[in-house]
Recover the amino acids of this structure.
């Protein structure tokens, strides 16, 4: 007997809205006898969400580099096929980058290839109601099309919202046609599984209003699996940067032997005007996660991690050499002069 299609959930939402937090929360309620798997794609080259999710005890696969809309071809299929065949999950959760357009991933998930393997359920988009005041968010084609494509719209971070923010969200959410299957409010990404159940309705993913003002430029389609980076014992300090969709990112993978000065690291995290900073870093006080969104830095201690990872996303070009130097200055005198391994941008856009 062929296996029934795997229930598949797409958790969309803009950069830093709380997708990974929500998935971690969902995973914490996984029935013990079920196998779940997560596929995550981040804008940056150096995945951090995978490391954050790794402690959850389920299979996690990262599709690194650029938006899922552009890696939705072969790299995503390779990642997806590998997860499906190795894990044989009972449930699959996908987090695409908030900086990507949802059309390709939806086409892939609902297309011929996965027709008998995956059953896409109600797609969900998390929204930070506070950001509905910002023209550049409202007019962002990726944001609008994610919201258009979603069956369920959920206001997250309501602990940080005013009454007015929530009212604005409710009005905005209920104005979509066709009407959304659900409109909900939550905090810390808490998503009851029932919000995710029900067949995906296949809503139009292009919001004509947004397309009136903007064109979505697909990056050069990636038709090859991305080259995997060299192992850290060959190249213990790796640096990469990436740009596309008006965003710039840079990231480091650094051997776990390098220990960073906690105080300098905290000052560094607060020191830039970035959209996003995420990391898993080893300091003299222990391993910790770093998660900066909307100017607020979240941080948690970790028992251990396989390597140091740090990533910064900005809508301005990043002062790469300065950042690299600041990071090098944080490691003790034990540190061998690392030297950036590459300042060539990756082939995105
Ligand atoms: N106060 C508050 N903080 C939240 C809430 N939900 C998430 N956060 C915080 O927001 C930050 C970003 O959350 P993530 O879950 O990493 O967001 P994301 O959407 O996965 O981010 P990207 O993958 O980078 O797009 C983290 O520091 C979270 O702890 C919430 O409801 N309230
Ligand atoms: Mg995330």
């Amino acid at each position: 007997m062929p296996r029934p299609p795997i229930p598949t959930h797409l958790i969309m939402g803009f950069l830093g809205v709380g997708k990974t937090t929500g998935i971690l929360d969902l995973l914490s309620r996984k029935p013990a006898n079920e196998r779940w798997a997560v596929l995550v794609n981040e804008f940056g080259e150096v995945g951090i969400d995978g490391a954050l999710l790794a402690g959850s005890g389920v299979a996690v696969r990262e599709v690194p580099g650029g938006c899922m809309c552009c890696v939705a071809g072969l790299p995503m299929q390779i990642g997806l096929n590998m997860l499906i065949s190795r894990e044989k999950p009972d449930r699959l959760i996908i987090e695409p980058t908030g900086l990507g357009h949802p059309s390709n991933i939806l086409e892939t998930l609902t297309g011929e290839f996965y027709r008998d393997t995956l059953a896409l359920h109600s797609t969900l988009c998390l929204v930070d109601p506070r950001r509905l005041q910002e023209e550049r968010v409202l007019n962002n084609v990726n944001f609008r099309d994610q919201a258009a494509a979603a069956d369920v719209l959920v206001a997250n971070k309501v602990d940080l919202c005013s009454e007015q923010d929530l009212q604005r969200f409710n009005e905005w959410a209920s104005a979509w046609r066709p009407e959304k299957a659900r409109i909900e409010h939550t905090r810390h990404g808490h998503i009851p599984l029932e919000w995710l159940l029900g067949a995906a309705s296949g809503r139009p993913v292009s919001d004509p209003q947004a397309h009136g003002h903007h064109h979505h430029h697909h990056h050069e389609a990636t038709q090859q699996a991305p080259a995997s980076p060299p192992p850290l014992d060959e190249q213990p300090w790796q640096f990469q940067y990436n740009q596309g969709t008006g965003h710039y990112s840079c990231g480091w993978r650094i051997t776990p032997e390098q220990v960073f000065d906690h105080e300098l690291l905290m000052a560094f995290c607060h020191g830039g005007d970035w959209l996003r900073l995420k990391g898993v870093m080893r300091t003299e006080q222990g391993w910790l996660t770093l998660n900066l969104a909307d100017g607020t830095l979240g941080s948690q201690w970790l028992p251990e991690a396989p390597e140091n990872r740090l990533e910064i996303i900005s809508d301005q070009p990043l002062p790469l050499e300065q950042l690299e130097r600041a990071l090098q200055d944080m490691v003790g005198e034990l540190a061998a002069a690392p030297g950036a391994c590459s300042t060539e941008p990756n082939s995105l856009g």
Notes: Residues 207-225, 334-349 have pLDDT under 50 and may be disordered. The radius of gyration is 20 Å. The chain is about 25% helix and 25% strand.
